[in-house]
Structures
1.
Amino acid sequence: MYWIGLLVVIVLAGWIFAGNGGLMVVLDIPSILLLLGLVLSLLAASGLMKDFLRVFRVVKGKTSVFTRTELEKSLLAVRLTMKLLLGSGVFGTMTGAIFIFAQVSEIFSMPKALSVSGIILLYAILLWLILLPLQSHLESRLLEPDDS
């Protein structure tokens, strides 16, 4: 069900972006790479990368082949990733805004330049929204009674 919901979100986001100037207005590969680079490197530094990747197997599987500890560590990894996304998004947006303020000489070009710096925060929020159902799924799995 998660994958169907994710597909609907992607289609709706594409429809919204396509209706408001096209996907090229919001597609910024360097911002995506910066955001993912920051988040994934900090997640790896925390030692929870393996636990984060396990989340996708948990969502895909219907059986309880994962221990309670594995589910708790995966939940911790998802929560950390969500925090890292928001922190990295704000960091990237603020860094971009500072560079823009330092380089833009004409006031009329400021709004367009600032919109580019806000794209990284948009990506962070979109990815954060995608992770919310994963967090809920893990929490609901942890509330299920143990079979042992």
2.
Amino acid sequence: MKVVPYPVKTNKEALVYEFISKGLKGEIVKIVRFEETESLPKKMYNISLVDYDPVTNEYNSENFTGNGDAKKVITTAGKIIMDFLNHFPNYSVYIEGNLKKKTIAYGVAINLFIDSIENNEYEVKGVEGDTNLAIIEVFYDRMRMDYSAYIIRKTIKQKN
């Protein structure tokens, strides 16, 4: 069964996206931010997915929300990544959780959607090790979940 993403709003620079998660804990504002990395190559943007509390004006990236809609949230985040890369086709998105269990969850999510990602002309790579001594390889082993991060970029078609 195909999961339909949540409706999304973005700023005009396409660097911040917002959507509402609806589930067991009610409505939770989710913010997806793209920030250029300083320690990685140019045109590499780190993605962060956080909960936002409009009452306290606080952001929380520490825990899983547990709202019962994880597949829909991940589907929405995947759609946001594709939108970002359509705006910036020469950029790459760097995905690393602030906790190891989140990075593993991102790997599982990529694994669930790898066919649609690859069919839509995006390339996924797994990062092994820290950013200074990283080994980067094409994400091909669907059972492998021990990457320290992932990189997604749009495949640039050569003009004939």
3.
Amino acid sequence: MKALITGITSYDGYFLSQFLSSKGYEVHGVIRRNSFKSFGNLSLLPDGLKKQINLHEGDVKDTSFINRVVSEVKPDELYHLAAQSFVAYSFENPPSTYDINIGGTLNVVNAIRDYSPNTRLYFAATSELFGKPETVPQNENTPFRPQSLCVAYIMIKFGNLWSKPKLTKLLLMTNFIFLGEK
């Protein structure tokens, strides 16, 4: 099994890369180009495990890059964790947040649709999809009631993509903050 992880240098990407490697997956990860050659949380991985991970340097906002990586790797599973997740920055620079969180996600979905339609996609979404839920905790049956126009737009775009017959293996998830050692 092959897995591609966008946002592999994140906290979740670090643990996911360890978990998938322990299950025998061939792990690929997308890392953003930077002048410091920083590998984020991947720097904490044991050297043997670091050498097993195939890194692809680029940006989810770059359509041709994402198309090329998905086309070459043809992952069985793609874990889309890459996002601009600093709330304060999202208010300071909404266009950049839009480009990364919406444009980058659409690039990933379109690349799967066009170049690797059998890939299963895990998309780490936001709890904002639920808006003000009537039940706690939320589950698969909790209705979406977004309070934000940005979140509503994402839902419309994905709703249109989900209705396409070629893309049927999409798992939309919301992550929950984990407090503790691991």
